[in-house]
Amino acid sequence: MAPQLNIIIVGGGIAGLSTAIALRHSGHTVTVLERHSSPQALGGPIGLTPNATRVLIEYGLREVMEEAHVAVEGEIHFRRWANGEVLDSMRRDELTEAYGFPAWSCSRFKVQEILANVANKRGVKIIFGAQVFGIDLEKPAVFLKHGTEMDADMIVGADGIRSVIRGAVTGNTEFKTSTPYGSYNVDFPRSLLQSDPEVEPLTRGDNFWFGPQIVVAINMPDYGDNLNVAFGTVSDDGREGDWHTHGDLEKLKAS
Ligand SMILES: Cc1cc2nc3c(=O)[nH]c(=O)nc-3n(C[C@H](O)[C@H](O)[C@H](O)COP(=O)(O)OP(=O)(O)OC[C@H]3O[C@@H](n4cnc5c(N)ncnc54)[C@H](O)[C@@H]3O)c2cc1C
């Protein structure tokens, strides 16, 4: 029988929580350390493609994820920005047919919440408000506030784009930006968009507009009464890895 390890995962995001479920499935003792004091309701819709759903299904999450999945009417349309002409379209079930597993659309926060609930129910210990400041690679151990040390047999770094763990392992703490683009996420009251006859048809499926230096996506309805519109454009607004900055509307309009 494989040894049962005591594993610490740094970061309670989608990667950290999924890893926690997988490692728990193999019988290990798993603790997730998350710096925020509570789950953060960030992000808009997220598309889970068959390579991801295959794994979630393997770990027994089909039912709970299907309840959370928002069925999107109609096709996904890819359009020319200038006149809305449809350049290509795709049905969501084409992906299922091609790869044998479904494609789900969910709210990113909901996915994170489900993963946390499942992990918790299966015996993963999730500690909120536990920011890791450093790691001893030899022991191995992590260091929290006031020098509190936590030892483990294995430490997994799932602490996102500005990972402390990656920096400690590779010695490279410099954060390199790979793109001049930024993304503005805006939630509009769905009723407002639906009350405009010109916009209403666009609220019924997934639509993407592609133009020079900009892509606009109207995605599936969210869980409340909102519809998420994402604007990907050249932008120096905000800072990489800082998800809390409010965008500047004038900069968005100018782009
Ligand atoms: C805010 C946000 C919104 C997004 N929105 C969308 C979307 O709408 N649609 C879409 O398709 N994709 C979206 N994405 C992209 C996709 O969700 C990400 O690729 C995915 O979240 C990456 O998961 P992750 O677990 O690797 O990193 P993250 O989600 O960044 O999770 C890392 C976790 O580690 C924690 N952490 C960081 N440092 C430490 C530390 N030192 N100690 C303890 N904990 C720490 C963080 O608080 C965080 O909870 C979004 C990503 C983010 C971050």
Task: Provide a quick synopsis of the model.
This protein is of the alpha/beta class and 255 residues long. It has helices spanning 14-25, 50-58, 62-68, 92-99, 108-121, 164-170, 190-194, 249-254; strands at 6-10, 29-34, 45-48, 76-80, 86-90, 104-107, 125-128, 134-136, 141-143, 149-151, 154-157, 181-189, 206-211, 214-221, 226-234.
Walkthrough of the structure:
This protein has 255 residues and is of the alpha/beta class. It has a domain at 181-254. It contains eight helices and 15 strands. β9 (141-143) and β10 form a beta hairpin. The radius of gyration is 21 Å and the shape is globular. The structure holds flavin-adenine dinucleotide. Flavin-adenine dinucleotide binds next to α1, β2 and β3.
List keywords for this structure.
binds flavin-adenine dinucleotide; alpha/beta; 6-stranded mixed β-sheet; monooxygenase activity; FAD-bd; 4-stranded parallel β-sheet; FAD-dependent monooxygenase; 255 residues
